[in-house]
Amino acid sequence: MATVSQWIEGARPRTWPAAVAPVAAGTGAAIWQLRGLDSLDAGTLLGVVLPRALLALAVALSLQIGVNYANDYSDGIRGTDDERVGPFRLTSSRAAAPATVKRAAIGSLAAGALFGVALIAVAGIWWALVVGSAAVAAAWFYTGGKKPYGYLGLGELFVFVFFGLVAVNGTAYAITLRFGWVALLASIAIGLLAVAIMLTNNLRDIPTDTIAGKRTLAARLGDRGTRWLFTATMLVPFVLMVPVMVAQWPVLLVLLALPLAIMPARTVLGGAMGRDLIPVLGATGKLELVFSVLLLAGLVI
Predict the structure, then answer these.
(1) 49-68 confidence digits (pLDDT tens)
(2) Which has the closest alpha carbon to 134: 158, 107, 106, 164?
(3) Measuring CA to CA, which residue among 198, 239, 215 is closest to residue 68?
(4) What b/e string do you get for 41-75 counting C-beta neighbours within 10 Å, with b at 16 or more?
(5) Is the overall model pTM greater than 0.70, yes or no?
(6) 234 Cβ partners below 8 Å, 6+ apart?
(7) CA nearest 271: which of 203, 198, 192, 197?
């Protein structure tokens, strides 16, 4: 039977910034937009922004943990993780029964769905049920089902869409009931950083994924192509923030996160492999989190 610490490790805390970051960025974009509409005061901040942001955070974290457990279960029963060199896995290590891990995945995704319905009800945007349902389905079918899209090289695309475009713009829209260009640029930037986290995992796993028939984007691009794509996803987000900096100069704070991109990029371009890439995962997640928090601060000031 898996211990509590093993369940936490199996939930992959290093990937959680990919859930927190889009909510932080979307909240910042929403506050900036409300200020521009002269509709931001203490009552709006406490009565509208904070509760909806917290619900969005609950949705994002639940789905992130759910997709991590679902990936653990699906890859584990397929044997993809049997020779894994990455972080601990509940199913492949036999620390937990596959059925138990599956229930944990379903429970986490169900919690995310419930939080999502609550957010939709509070915001009165019932059409978003379609988007929310698609997000839950994407979380499960990444490695689940008969033809998981993660095995077809589409994982990064779905991460970009759901942990970038949907999560950031969705958070901002749930607060303001409007779409805005700042949220759009932020969503692209955060989506690229989320892709970088996935690329770190898939770059490390190219040898074992290839043997297991898991044709991730990294396996398709090859080692060299993946390393250059990773570097681009780490640096382009800073370029995307230039127009936002022009409109709101305190967003220059985001540049303080730039040094955090140097170590992971140098390590990846330097040819690190296997376990040497594990610290890059944590560093990339830290970059995304710090980037989003500094963006939030710059938009709120």
Answers:
(1) 999 999 999 999 999 999 99
(2) 158
(3) 198
(4) eeeeeeebbeebbebbbbbbbbbbbbbbbbbbbbb
(5) yes
(6) 193, 196, 261, 264, 265, 284, 287
(7) 203
